[in-house]
Amino acid sequence: MQEVECIRQDGSGTLLDGYLKNLIKEAGGEIKLTDLKAPFSSYQNPLVLIINSENLSGMKELIQKRKEKIIIGMNSRKDFKLVAELKHEFEKIFGFIDLSQESEYNLPLLKNYLALNFTRGTLPLDKLAGDLDKIYEYTKSELTRIKDLHDRFVKVRIDKLKGMSLTSKFMAGEKSGGEFFEILQNENEVLFIQAGSDSYILSSMLLGEMETLKEKSITGNLTAHAEQFLKIINHHATEQKGELSYCLMILNLKNLHASFHIKGQAHLFYDNEWISFDQPMQLKLKPKQRLCLISDGAFKNWIILSKKQIEPFFKSHNEMPTRELINEFFFEVSRNKSGNFLVHDALVAAVDIEETKIYQV
Question: Is the same domain home to 110 and 246?
Fold first, then answer.
């Protein structure tokens, strides 16, 4: 049985240790738990580093001393903001696991890590090929199961905001990378961010930057924070040579002036008009009106899977209630898909402005 060393913060607690023991056991390994302050016993065995802001510096030193691939574990989504700090070590990182998820979510990655990097002895090629096929099929089945659970339980989401509601739905895709979205609000503004990439590393960095932005948004100007966020993620995309898409909206809650930044093939539908643009743009929203965002991935899925033109679809369904409209969109792209999932991650969101609130003209 392969020994896997897990290094975490001193005094991490029995819950984390229990989770790690069960995860390593299910992956076919035997765990060795080590505190960061303890001597690091081996630079060659499988290694999982549980990283947080307090131990980041010490963990980076361990990574730099090691030649073999490692796994990085994050205790929560907030810790993904540290991914950018590890960009110089990416060639040594096999992947990231999220310890706030069920073990089944992380198991396929860990099994692949052990099988592809630490198989003992010399195996016949046909045996090795057979084992890799089994790992691949297992990984696919686990991914299918997890995504299926996500699609069944994460349905239409409705966020009640100041003077408006935001209705959104996400469906998972088979392509690498992913799409994410976040909503931030203060007394004067609402900031809506949807961002995605075709790269797992860049996607992890986006997730981390969103968490950093959420922390900054507690104080200061949302518009200024948003502009800085765009500079940072565009810089990450250039460094990683990854495809980046986003749609960012800043809405003034007093006068309903909305500013937009879009990169990629995301589109807007507002006042019965289909809107695409590649430069910053502004709209004056109105009470009782609905603004729809169709993400880059949602638009790509429509082009690939739907047999209809997208602009006439939104115009002909414009009178539908928001929830029904979004479900109808996903029905159209889902009915012609060949597998269990869409081709790309997809998000459709709609902002409905309330009539009762008084706004500045």
Answer: no
Round to whole Å and give the CA distance between 42 and 87.
Answer: 24
Residue keyed to tokens 């690939």: 304
Look at strands 346-353 and 290-294 and give their pairing. Answer: antiparallel
**Phi/psi at 26 (5° precision):** -65, -30
Do 349 and 181 touch, CB atoms closer than 8 A?
yes
Mean pLDDT of 186-213: 88
Residue at a domain's end among 150, 174, 194:
150
Over residues 255-261, the mean pLDDT reads 93
State the pLDDT at residue 186: 87
- pTM flag (> 0.85): no
Mean pLDDT calculated for residue range 98-114: 81
* The pLDDT of residue 119: 62
Query: Environment class of residue 125 by beta-carbon count within 10 Å: exposed (0-12), middle (13-18) or buried (19+)?
Result: exposed
Confidence of residue 122 (pLDDT cuts 50, 70, 90): very low
DSSP annotation string for 301-322: HHHHH-SS-HHHHHHHTTTS-H
Top pLDDT among 90 and 104 is at: 90
Q: pLDDT band at residue 150, thresholds of 50, 70 and 90?
A: very low
Same domain, 209 and 339: yes
For residue 162, give its domain range. 154-353
Domain identity same for 276 and 140: no
Cβ-based neighbour number of residue 345 at 10 Å: 27
Q: What are phi and psi of 13, to 5 degrees?
A: 110, 155
In a domain, 360, yes or no: no
Are residue 237 and residue 292 in the same domain, yes or no? yes
Asked whether residue 86 falls in the same domain as residue 196, the answer is no
Q: Are residues 26 and 88 in the same domain?
A: yes
